[in-house]
Amino acid sequence: MRFGAHVSSSGGISNAIDRGQAIGCESLQVFTHNPRTWKPINHKPEEIAAFREKAADAGMGPLVSHGLYLMNLGAPDREVPTGPPAKGKTRNIYRSSIESLTQHLEIGEALGLEGIVLHVGSSKGSTTDEAITRIGAGIAEALDAVPGTCGIYLENTAGAGDTIGRTFEQLRAVADAAGHPDRVGFCLDTQHMFASGFPIHEDGGIDRVLADFDDVVGLDRLKCLHLNDSKTEFGSNRDRHENLGDGLIGEDGFRRILGHPALQGLPVILEVPGSGEGPDSDNMQRARRLHEEGLALRS
Ligand SMILES: [Zn+2]
Ligand SMILES: [Zn+2]
After folding, report:
1. What confidence tens digit (pLDDT) does each residue in 20-43 have?
2. How confident is the model at residue 125 (pLDDT cuts 50, 70, 90)?
3. How far apart are the CA of 115 and the centre of ligand 2, in A?
4. Could you say which of 14, 51, 235, 261 has the lowest number of CB atoms within 10 Å?
5. What confidence tier does 127 reach under pLDDT thresholds 50, 70, 90?
């Protein structure tokens, strides 16, 4: 396992490598976009070069980004109001999402990222099947626009509202609609699985869940694990991350998960709150300890 974390890239994206190193990361996840706006960041060529150089020097990888939360490829392909009706402002969320995903791939290629973790989207009043068709077409359009090796990793959701990607069948259907099997992979988030009612914390649970994932999707397409404990109950469908061992998945749950043989080659990215500023060295140490203990339990 390559333990890493989502770290801030403020002040220049190459700073993310320093922040990752400071807390003991071997792999890393960053935002390449400002989370609050559609407008992309104009990363300076020297920042991009510094990012690549520092990552190579530190031996840090795989490197991934997390897609802008504003993107929703499940949204209907039409203009919708984006503010008070009196202002008359509209946006086509679907087209904006494809444009943003294309920009994510471009900067991903420039930075040497292995993939972009993407929340699949929500159906916004259309049927799930219609949304899945749109999402697949949108992903294919972005991948066609940016040839290269940077992939898109579809992430399972906590299952709130009309979000797509709460079941392995839905994730598989989106991937089939997108095509490009060489560049479309998957990211599983432990908190989202727990919240969606996958019993990954129980004795033998992760083994059953991953056997099911292998049947429906294929373990060879699992490219990334998000390692988060849960503030909210099993099956709650709520997306609330907790520090490792302090939540309802708990230390026993993480020992079972981290010991699983099929997960050993993956980048494992923490998106935990830490003491308020995100993943810290304490959580990184907990992850590595629980991994060692999990491996020992299975040997
Ligand atoms: Zn996640
Ligand atoms: Zn989450």
Report:
1. 999 999 999 999 999 889 999 999
2. confident
3. 18
4. 261
5. very high
CA of 198 to the centre of ligand 2 (A): 15
* 21, 51 contact by CB (below 8 A): no
- Radius of gyration of the CA atoms of the chain, in A: 19
Q: Is 168 helix (H, G, I), strand (E, B) or coil?
A: helix
Q: Give me the pLDDT at residue 131, please.
A: 95
Task: Give ion ligand 2 contacts, CB < 5 A.
Answer: 239
Cα–Cα dist 95/93, whole Å: 6
201 included as an active-site residue: no
Q: Of 68, 45, 58, which Cα lies nearest the Cα of 16?
A: 58
Cα 186 from Cα 153, distance rounded (Å): 4
pLDDT digits (tens, 9 = 90+) for 4-21: 999 999 999 999 999 999
Q: Identify residue 36 by its one-letter amino acid code.
A: R
Cα–Cα dist 240/128, whole Å? 24
- Which ligand gives the minimal distance to the CA of 64? 1
Tokens at residue 87, please? 């202002």
Structural domains of the chain sorted by starting position, each given as residue range(s) with its CATH number in brackets: 2-298 (3.20.20.150)
Which candidate in 19, 33, 43, 192 is catalytic? 192
Distance in angstroms (rounded) separating the CA atoms of residues 3 and 42: 29
Residue 192 Cα, ligand 2 centroid: separation in angstroms? 6
Confidence band (pLDDT; 50, 70, 90) for 170? very high
Given 172, 221, 226, 291, the catalytic residue: 226
Cα 132 from Cα 164, distance rounded (Å) = 8
The Cα 249–Cα 245 span in angstroms is: 7
Q: Is 189 a known active-site residue?
A: yes
Catalytic: which of 18, 53, 69, 144?
69
Q: Which residues are placed with Cβ below 5 angstroms of ligand 1, an ion?
A: 189, 226
